[in-house]
Model the fold of this input.
Amino acid sequence: MTRQSTLKRAAFYLVLVLFALVYLGPFAIQIATSVKTDADAAGNPLGLVPDPATFDAYRRMFGLTDDSPVPFMRWFGNSTFVAVTVTLGRVFFDSLAGYALSRLQFSGRRYVFLAVLAVMSVPGVVLLIPKFLVLNYFGMYDSYSAMVLPLIIDATGVFIMKQFFDSVPVSIEEAARIDGASVFRTFWSVVLPMARPALVTLTILSFQGSWNEFTHMLVATEDPAYQTLTTGMASLFTGGLGSGTQYPLKLAVALVATIPVAIVFFAFQRYFVRGANEGGVKG
Amino acid sequence: MSRSTGIRGNEKVAGWLFVGPMIVVLGLFLVLPIFMALWVSLLDWAPARGDPFSGGGEYVGTDNYRSLVAVDALTRTDFMKSMRNTFYYVLFVVPLQTVLALFLAVVLNQKRLRGKGFFRSAFYFPSVTSSVAISMVFLFLFLNNGGINKVLSWVGIDGPSWFSDANGVFHLLLGVVGVDQAPGALGANGVLGLSFWEWLAGPSVALCAIIVLVVWTTAGTFMLMFLAALQDIPVEVDEAALIDGATTWRKFRYVTLPQLKPVLFLVLTLGLISTWQIFDQVYVMSEGNPDKTTLTPAFLSYRESFVSQNWGTGAAIAFVLFAVILLLTLIQRWVMRDKDEPRRRRRAEVPA
Done:
């Protein structure tokens, strides 16, 4: 019995390690290739030890050489601007709307909430052409406002916040209201501080989503000056920048573009997973 | 008394003020554009022809939709190819990612395993990374003399040139048993612009590379959902099954799996909805090539509009895709409700 269970555990570990290789391998290869020469990358695609090691790709991508092929810092700056603005906007406006839909008594609330649910079920990819049409119509195409404004509030975030406020008892804010605080004052200084767990989730989701946003940026802009990391990388990878192979450079760009989300992921993942599992622990 | 009505009165105004920004943004950039695109799908239009809402372009009625299904020309052939490709793509990705996610979750849910957190993060991490960045990594791995083919060569397999191989895998399998030409009737006859032989090609080798990438990336998210549901199963149920002497497999099949039914349906629904939308990976890795075997409706809709400047056709494709996804969601909901209702009723009968 015990020998059998030891064997079983060994089998489970074997499976886990095998899959960990499959899952981490590509990233390890990516890191190793980013410090290889072009010839070494092509000739030895699986090798984890570069021969010779070179930081050429990084030097070129950060513009430290004469032939910098990619405006990496511009892409990074645009992505940062988009991610920060969209995250701030969503955290504020989503919780404002979510709070109203959960707590405030106003006629038509039910219909507004049903509309939010309907909007949530619209598949994002069918909005490619509609989004271009409206941005073009308003004369916003190819501008920072076209990149940011349509994303600044999202139905999913509103839904998350409403669900959260539904689960919080009203007594504390009612006390504040009876003390004469206005609706907004109560929301700002009593409700929001209590909503920290939901706000952290919303912040992470918004940052990750807007940092990785590709299709919206693709249909909102065309001028290379507005390229973010996603659209910039896409033009680099599909040959728009006429760059031939250059795998170390491409993989280095992809790697650095992944780092901010990776940092957020590893800093908050315990929080994330705990949130996902909360339901299970309570039983 | 007067104070309390005052508070309620405040709430009316505050309520609309609070949801105001949301209504403006979602209304202007989500609802309005859908109606704009609906109008454009009835036009022969491109941005160069002026404002489509004040006379730019030419009204063609339902011609754009008819060209997708009823007119025997390149547009229909391309559209049908994109539907066929995506059908096979969904057919492979949804079951594979669901099974992989469930498998990883069950393994991670074993008691007395060390390093669970590490493995869970490793499996989940690809889901949070950028689809464009990860596509580049896989493009490199799937090169003709790249990592995947190198691994295949270790076990004596001569790997294909992935992104230039348009052969369908069903055709290749038939080739193994000697059928490498369309049998007369299948090649000569067809429906909607493609011969039966072409309809039955299966995913091309190039599409298989994209299938591998997507299964690998998304399984982690669904694994987390299964893991949460597994931890929801009361320990007593497990123990009762063990006392009854159930084997591991029988316990999984008859005790664990039925309890996972709701989350299984959720994972399948989300999988169906997201797979039909595939765009990013096609844009970065293959652009519909080789021989249009990685063309998908979403990518075709983009290409027709932004590249070919047939915005009416592009918009029409988007709405057909919208209809397909909506239909699938409704079917899934209907199936789910049927299976779920008696359960819920039973649960409600148990006193809390």
User: Anything to note?
Assistant: Chain A touches chain B through 96 residues (CB under 8 Å). Chain A has a mean pLDDT of 87.
